Fold this protein.
Amino acid sequence: MRLKYICGIINKNYTNIKNVIALLAFVVLIVSCSGKKDLTQIKAGMTETEVVQKIGEPSNKVPMPMGITWWKYGDNSMVVMENGTVSNVVPDIKKSEEDMEKAMKDLDKATQDSK
């Protein structure tokens, strides 16, 4: 009887410890994923060093032709570097893509209307 009682306490405490560990892991994951960078601090003409000091290293650097490098911050933000200085800041890549698609459709429609 006493052994069942002790095993029950151990099992209950083990389950509580597992829950606490799972909760801590979840909180760490949320905090690390929600670390969205504040790209409003970044302005055209800033150097690479200034950008890193303000918002840290990018999650990915994508080299492009003619001295351009895309500094990606997460999946949806980007700083465009040209020869070591900021030439453009794209805080919301998906919105920019949507805006570009809309502009292309509007341009296409205007071209069709003018014919």
In short: Residues 2-33 form the longest helix (32 residues).
